[in-house]
Amino acid sequence: MADSIIERLRAGGKKLTKARRAILEALERSSVPITAGELHARLRKVRVPIDLVTVYRNLGMLQKLGLVTAVGLHDGQMRYEVRHGREHHHHIQCRGCGKIVDLMLCPIKKLTAVVEAKTKFAVESHTLEFFGWCPQCR
Amino acid sequence: MADSIIERLRAGGKKLTKARRAILEALERSSVPITAGELHARLRKVRVPIDLVTVYRNLGMLQKLGLVTAVGLHDGQMRYEVRHGREHHHHIQCRGCGKIVDLMLCPIKKLTAVVEAKTKFAVESHTLEFFGWCPQCR
DNA sequence: CTCTATGCAAATAATTTGCAAGCAC
DNA sequence: GTGCTTGCAAATTATTTGCATAGAG
After folding, report:
1. Smallest Cα–C1' distance to nucleotide D23: which residue has it?
2. Exposure letters A73-84 (e unless 16+ CB within 10 A, then b)
3. Residues 6 or more apart whose Cβ sits within 8 Å of residue A128
4. d(Cα B88, Cα A119) in Å, to the nearest integer?
5. Distance from CA of B17 to the nearest CA of A (A)
């Protein structure tokens, strides 16, 4: 796990517990965003006796620190992925099998100024997700 | 309420009930997406005695028929807006007061071909939401 | 009349909160 | 030691489902 993550935790007055370390490592292992439940299941499979509540609490905290990003794919639950040290990107999910694929692109940056001019809002973030049918399902 | 909506309902084997008409009218009155709960509250305020369950069931059905669109703004609940007869667009929500404003723009159409080429998915839809701070809250 | 729609109660599912005990620093 | 953390139980919130009755076409 990157040193800078530990620094960011310290800067937020957070401690590096066993549970927390396991959560961060599991998140870093995943190439696509996963739900709190999936994360919890993966940890238990590796014999990390952790409570689901702890997973939720840590995901929330990591999000506030900007180390993790939440992704909502409209299926009733949130998914989370490491943000720290990874490039900003978006996703596409298959309507058939639910598979998620990273899309290493973002056409929004140039648009932010337009949005700010139109709305007078100070744009802080955005979400962009695609839905469709993967090669196997279509 | 537009005739074509009634036609679309009929085409789907749906009836035009009092509750359904009220839901559609309330949705058409709203300029921004609203939650099932908000919709329910507005109907009761106008003395339309309808059950929350009926609201949910109708929103789900209208979505399947393509008459309504679901918008997820990452705050634990879905919002819905009329799609039929309105132009495709996106939204921005204030992190402070929660206010939602329509953004009549969409930079994604041109991008769809790129995404399809990259992923081999057949892209069906997308979501794009902005978050930031409105003039009053920043 | 027939089939869809609704209300009411109850069930799910995801996520959050309270509190006492545990662990990092 | 002291304060952040965790586990366990319980509460919340959003949404869904079962079933008998009511209503549209």
Report:
1. B17
2. beeeebbbbbbb
3. A90, A106, A108, B108, B126, B127, B128
4. 18
5. 28
B36 touches strand D (CB under 7 A): yes
For residue A130, the chain B residue with the least C-alpha distance is: B126
List, for residues B91-116, the tens digit of each pLDDT value: 999 999 999 999 999 999 999 999 99
Taking the CA of residue B50 and the C1' sugar atom of nucleotide C6, their distance in angstroms comes to 8
pTM of the shown model = 0.94
One-letter amino acid of B126? H
Domains of chain B: 3-82 (1.10.10.10), 90-132 (3.30.1490.190)
Is strand C less than 7 A from the beta carbon of A31?
no
Q: Is B116 exposed, middle or buried (0-12, 13-18, 19+ CB in 10 A)?
A: middle
List CB contacts (< 8 A) between A99 and chain B. none
Which residues in chain B (75-104) have CB-CB distances under 8 A to chain A? 78, 92, 94-95, 101, 103
Q: Pairing relation of β-strands A100-103 and B100-103?
A: unpaired
Contacts of A71 (CB under 8 A, 6+ apart): A33, A78, A79, A80, A81, A91, A127, A129
Nucleotides on strand D with an atom closer than 7 A to protein CB? 3-10, 13-18, 23-25
Mean pLDDT of B62-81: 97
Copy the structure tokens of residue B49: 């005695």
Q: pLDDT tens for residues A1-17? A: 788 999 999 999 999 99
